[in-house]
Amino acid sequence: MLSNFAVPKLKFLLLFCLVLNIFSIVQFKNTGCRSNDVSKNGTCYTNVECQNKGGISSGSCAGGFGVCCLFTVNSSPYTISENCTYIQNPSFPSVYSDTGAITYTINKCSSDVCQVRLDFVSFSTEAPAATTEVNGGACVDSFTATSTSGYITPNICGLNTNQHSNKAAKQPILMNAQWNISQGFVSL
Fold it and tell me: How do residues 98-111 score in pLDDT, each as one tens digit?
């Protein structure tokens, strides 16, 4: 027979086990989420997953069971494999004035990804020297995205804020970049 003291302890132990069991089975998809910074989107992960992947927690998702994880890259060379990674020049938001290429490689995050979308959140490079040049105004500074299958986007230069570019994602994408770009994957 249980004593009056043992019954509350038993009830607490049962309740604790039930609560622990509920939390151990909570699962959610790693989908897009709105961060505390309303201008940025992230990916919903557990807090531990976000930290292990090198992200920064910025708000909650999945009914409070997850965190909206932000990924930002501002050094080169760097390989990106997280959806919705913000790619910024090394001195962002200041102007990057070094010469030479900055290279990023974007790998697909899953096998069902068919395209990489680059949203130019802010994008400004030196525009063509003159529009009256014989060759049509070649870019002084430029952005080029190259897939390893050999497809190269045309050079992009000048002011392209709020524009975007999609690339087929059969192979990793290589980028030479100097700006703030939000990268995301497009699934089938």
Answer: 777 788 888 877 88
Q: Are 157 and 128 in contact (CB under 8 A)?
A: yes
Number of separate domains in the chain: 2
Q: Are residues 95 and 164 in the same domain?
A: yes
Query: Reduced to 3 states, what is the DSSP secondary structure of residue 64?
Result: helix
Query: Could you tell me if 66 and 47 lie in one domain?
Result: yes
Cα 80 → chain centroid: 8
pLDDT tens digits, one per residue of 32-69: 999 998 889 999 999 999 999 999 999 999 999 999 99
User: Could you list the residue range(s) of the whole structural domain that residue 55 is in?
Assistant: 27-71
Predicted TM-score (pTM) of the model is 0.71
CA–CA separation, 58 and 37 (whole Å):
7
